[in-house]
Amino acid sequence: MAWNEPGNNNGDNGRDNDPWGNNNRGNKGGRDQGPPDLDEVFNKLSQKLGGKFGGKGGKGPSIGGGGALGIGVIAAIAIAIWVFAGFYTIGEAERGVVLRLGKYDRVVDPGLNWRPRFIDEVTPVNVQAIRSLRSSGLMLTKDENVVTVAMDVQYRVADPYKYLFRVTNADDSLRQATDSALRAVIGDSLMDSILTSGRQQIRQSTQETLNDIIDTYDLGLVIVDVNFQSARPPEQVKDAFDDAIAAREDEERFIREAEAYKNEILPKATGRAERLKKEAQGYSERVTNEALGQVAQFEKLLPEYQAAPEVTRNRLYLDAMEEVYTSTSKVLVDSDSSGNLLYLPIDKLAGQEGQTQTKRKAQSSSAYDQIELESQRTDTNSDSQSRSTGTRQGRY
Predict the structure, then answer these.
(1) Helices 38-52, 63-85: crossing angle, 10 deg rounding
(2) 161 FRET partner, CA 20 to 30 A, in 1, 72, 178, 321?
(3) 105-159 pLDDT, tens per residue?
């Protein structure tokens, strides 16, 4: 019996037990009339559907047949809506993780896909976007100093299923792992190394430690890069550390300048040394050959001396005197002459020769070139002496 069926009285005045207070069912126009009966609502709906889908001539089927047909149409429409509602799209950079009745089923690729509505649940995950998180704070170094360190980690999702279901929150777990790895590396480093030259090593060590932690937790993430942002000493000693860092930078700058100067000067000095060495070798060979030539000359002169010692001795004497007087500004006078004075402007000739030699010395760029000029001059004097000696020998 329904709760508002007539006859279910509570004993007073034959009134129905209506919770809306509409105990007088005959009061159809009253404002306190309760909601209609559910059976009556369904009956009216069946009659309306039966009238629409009934037979020709205005006579429809019975109320039961029309209701069954209407329910079938509604079911077909509902199924069509359910089928079309199951289509969904996964973006190019995403992968869809499918749960069937709450249990992991598969990972779908980008494109148009279909799932049974209310049975499968799809969660798209972007696997190409580069995500970033930042870790910073006061940390204790190996030499018991406190330093403020900040590091930025860039990562992406490698396995959507592990990213969603291996841990409660993969991003938060990675943040905690980054903080732990950074503190471990800073705890094994000295403060001077952290602030100056050891930053690259700290970055590499932090990335390796973080990869080990991620592999252990199986987060489904891949570390793309780790950037060591900044490292600052406490504010109380910041000025002193800034001065120390500036001094180290000046030291490195001076070292680089010295290396640059060395790289510039050393090749020039090496080339100059090689040139001087070659010139010295050439000078040595030339002097040696000249000495050998003089020895050969004296060896040829020996037979002549043995054949005519007096004549050869006089010739050598005259050659020596000619060589001595060549560099002097003297006037030679023949005492046996008949009063005629023979003037030889040897000083002017010597001055002109000296000027010529000075010009040649100015054009020469090496001491060995000057020596070569002097040797050439000596050879010239020797040739002239030889010619004059030959002339004297002819006279004798």
Answers:
(1) 90
(2) 178
(3) 888 988 888 888 888 888 888 888 899 999 888 888 888 888 888 889 999 998 8
